[in-house]
Amino acid sequence: MSHDDPSRGRPDADRSGAPSQPPIEDYAVLSDMRTAALVSSAGSIDWLCLPRFDSEACFAALLGSPGNGRWLLGTVEPARTTRSYEAGTLALVAEHETDAGVVRVEDFMPTSEDATHVVRRISGLRGRVLVRHEWVLRFGYGEHRPWIHRVPDHSDLGCDEMLVATSGPSSVLLRGPRLPRPHGTTHTDEFEVREGETLTFVMSWWPSHEEPPPPFDVARARAATLAHYRGWTRHAHYHGEHADAVRTSLAVLRGLTDRDTGGIVAAATMGLPEQFGGARNWDYRYCWLRDASLTLTAFLECGYRKEPRTWRRWLLRAVAGDPASMQIMYGVDGRRDLTERELGHLPGYADSRPVLLGNAAVDQQQLDVLGEVMNALELARSRGLTESADSWALQVALVDHLCENWDRRDQGLWEIRGPARRFTHSRAMVWVALDRAVRGVEQHGLDGPADRWRQVRDRVRDDVLTRGVADAGHFRQHDETDEVDASLLLLAPVGLVAADDPRYVATVAKVERDLLRDGLVLRYRTSSGVDGLTGDENPFLACSFWLVSAYALTGRIDDARHLMGHLVSLRNDVGLLSEEYDPRAGRFVGNTPQAFSHLALIDAATTLATASEAAAAG
Fold first, then answer.
1. Counting C-beta atoms within 10 Å of the first and last residue's C-beta, which end of the chain has fewer, N or C?
2. pLDDT tens-digit map of 240-294
3. For residue 67, what are the contacts with CB-CB under 8 A and spacing of at least 6?
4. Whether residues 188 and 326 fall in one domain
5. What are the pLDDT digits (tens) for 49-64?
6. CB 585 within 8 A of CB 277
7. Residue 26 binned pLDDT confidence (cut-offs 50, 70, 90)
8. What is the share, in percent, of the chain residues with pLDDT greater than 70?
9. Taking residues 483-497, what's their average pLDDT?
10. How many Cβ atoms are within 10 Å of 11's Cβ, its own excluded?
11. Residue 251: CA count within 13 A, CB half-sphere
12. What phi and psi values does residue 112 have, to the nearest 5 degrees?
């Protein structure tokens, strides 16, 4: 039995602001479509929430130190490491080569099991390699030490006992042929792996008041997990340029979808900063209606049909009730209370404080959200998804409520924490919501007050084309500024204006002049003070993909291909993207993997492919 104290040490940053933790791009993600783990190239799982994406983390070294919890299975000596996912999956394979030999580590989270497990299998390929095994479990986001003891085990993994850690409602076990022993504040072991040897370790979570999950056939679970992901990604209809990047992004979005509830989280992590050492550190492990809707759009564009139906059921459960109480985000299970608070015991990634749990944006007014929702549902209808009486009744109620409130100020797409504004993008998406509702009546025979919706839709468009246009002829961020915002690049793709509209063309040019930083696109100029926050941020990858689409739609195919190729090259070694990118330091910034970045990659690829085909056809 051991009672380990978590380390309270603060990770340092060097003078350039580089974090002492591994770079964000050093992490790969594992997922069983209930939760996700981040594993570094050195073999350390530094982030894992159990049992759901938005549950408490039991490995939180990502936002602190190893003493805040991690699971290391890596070489003692320096190694040259190559990694990749099994094609079309999130099953990771890493080969570590030292001067003494080569070992392979295979990491995956089974999608075929009822409980949540992390499986790690290490095999000797050549020579003898000294391996370090370190298991530091900390509940409560790295704060609470569990009670750890050894109990008999009857699995076929070659050991007659297993480690069991318990804290309050959660228990975690570790099975394997050679379990680490307590050493100070950790459980550690070092051993040689020789050519031909294989050792398999399985970590499992279960509610502490129940019996632990039984052993399972690891080989069969791995085969089933590979088949699940490959069977899904194989159905993608996209075959244009960067097809591998699109398939990887689809697998990532699949991995960020909860298989039990249908909720789609914005990212696997919380607290990763938009500026190292700064305060823009948000919790993204929740279901934004906007991000989820755009993910559905990406799925539909690639030929998927089942996912919109599952997500629509999630939406009905989450939003059920008074339309006025619709939130812009929910927990994975649809819960509403996402109150923001600081985790003061964590020093943050690269000393970036505060580390925030929950998200205050849950209480914001964001008028664009229903536009993304209605656009996705209309696209689903056009692809054959039949509305149920309940699903359409909900949409009618939400659109009717929007008709009464569309001219309110809001916090907009970027969830600003400054004063509410009349954001041009928000009003454009109000127009989208009304337009897609009208299409539901006109094109799909659904029952609704289409005359009223048309009238309000036309008023909204007139408003956007007057208050939303600067004297210089470009669209503007809101009606009290001449600043531009990258979200204005979406006005042509959603159909508010044509791509050759002089106001849209002028907007693209203005974005190029004001928001490009080293070839990538900022969301907006933080120096304007619009967001009410201190500090700066880096280029936002989704915005850069939007510029690809804008180039393609305005006939600048060569520019679109060049930027698309550059963006795809920024992915890490296993094809992941974070929220932002620092082009000067060449590193990821913000939460990872970020659904917004990956869905924008898919959208840009499909838009570019369509525009290229049209250009080739003359």
1. C
2. 899 999 999 999 999 999 999 999 999 999 999 998 998 889 999 999 999 999 9
3. 5, 6, 7, 8, 9, 61, 136, 138, 142, 185
4. no
5. 999 999 999 999 999 9
6. no
7. very high
8. 97
9. 98
10. 18
11. 31
12. -95, -5
Please write the tens of the pLDDT for every residue from 531-566.
Answer: 888 888 899 999 999 999 999 999 999 999 999 999
Please give the Cα distance from 322 to 212 (Å, whole number).
Answer: 41
Burial class of residue 8 in the structure, from the number of CB atoms within 10 Å of its CB (0-12 exposed, 13-18 middle, 19+ buried): middle
Same domain for 263 and 184 = no
Residue 353 structural domain: 235-616
E runs forming strands in 214-339? 287-288, 329-330
pLDDT class of 239 with cuts at 50, 70, 90? confident
543 φ, ψ to 5°? -65, -35
**Residue 1 amino acid letter:** M
Question: Tens digit of pLDDT for each residue in 95-134?
Answer: 999 999 999 999 999 999 999 999 999 999 999 999 999 9
With 50 as the cut, is the pLDDT of residue 575 above it?
yes
On the CB side of 583, CA atoms within 13 Å amount to 15
Q: What CATH number corresponds to the domain at position 264?
A: 1.50.10.10
CATH assignment at residue 210 = 2.70.98
pLDDT at 179: 96
Secondary structure of residue 85 in the 3-state scheme? strand
Rounded Cα distance, 345 and 338, in Å = 20
Closest by CA to 332, choosing from 256, 270, 250, 249, is: 256
Query: What is the rounded distance in angstroms from the CA atom of residue 448 to the CA atom of residue 456?
Result: 14
Question: For residue 90, which amino acid is it?
Answer: L
The backbone torsions φ and ψ at residue 102, rounded to the nearest 5 degrees and listed phi first, read -135, 135
Cα dihedral 302→304→305→307 (10° resolution): -120
The rounded distance, in Å, linking the Cα atoms of 258 and 311 is: 10
In angstroms and rounded to an integer, the radius of gyration of the C-alpha atoms of the chain is 25
> How many H helices and E strands in the chain?
13, 23
The residue from 194, 213, 230 where one domain ends is 230
Indicate whether 91 and 188 sit together in one domain.
Answer: yes
Angle, CA of 259, 263 and 265, to the nearest 5°? 105
Domains identified in the chain, total number: 2
Name the one residue in this structure whose structure tokens are 């003070």. Answer: 529
> Coil, strand, or helix at residue 279?
coil
Rounded Cα distance, 474 and 481, in Å? 12
Report residue 195: phi and psi, to 5°.
-50, 130
Q: SS in 3 state form for 194-229?
A: EECCEEEEEEEEEECCCCCCCCCCHHHHHHHHHHHH
In this prediction, residue 443 has a pLDDT band, given cuts at 50, 70 and 90, of very high
Length of the chain: 618
Write out the two tokens for 459.
């008023």
**Confidence (pLDDT) at 18:** 44
